[in-house]
Amino acid sequence: MAYAKRGSSRMVMMAWKNMLNNGRTPDLIAYTSMIRGLCEAGMVDGGMRLLNDMLARGDVEPDAVTYNVLFHGLLEGGNLTRAMDLLGRMLDRGCDPDPVTCNIFLKWLVVEGKGREFLDGLVVRLIKRGRVEGASEIVEVMLRKCLAPEASTWEKVLRGVCKRKKVWRIIDSAGWRCGDKSFE
């Protein structure tokens, strides 16, 4: 995949086809490298086709790095709608966004002043899918960027982290609420 770094997409495609014709199954690194090469060559649609091929073959599952390469390519091309659609597909497949995913989207959404809203919504989507760990990681990114989640989102994250009813009974019985100074 060294050809991709030099921008010789024709050579890359020949090497890829040769690999497939010889019965070799590409692994995650090969797929991601090829997708990166296509995106860097301005061939994001080719990268998307390769992702679809990867998913159709079913022997390799994309990870956050693979998706991040495509998000970057799509957003560089000004295609926020397709990037958001791909994010939905990523979540549907059980792959959680990572801090890099957040930063890629924030770079484009900050201009529109929608970065906080986007991340908050992402946290809620993950919580609804029962993926508290992924949601907590996004909250951490938000806090590092000084983008505090909505109060209702905080509650959802806390309820997900503190699943045991005993913890919530103690909190509720103490009458604790955000901003209550009696616990300091």
Automatic annotation (TrEMBL):
The keyword Repeat applies. PPR repeats lie at residues 27-61, 63-97. Keywords: Repeat. NCBIfam families: PPR (TIGR00756). PANTHER family: MEMBRANE-ASSOCIATED SALT-INDUCIBLE PROTEIN-LIKE, OS03G0201400 PROTEIN. Belongs to the PPR family. P subfamily. This is Pentatricopeptide repeat-containing protein At4g20090-like. It comes from Phoenix dactylifera (Date palm).
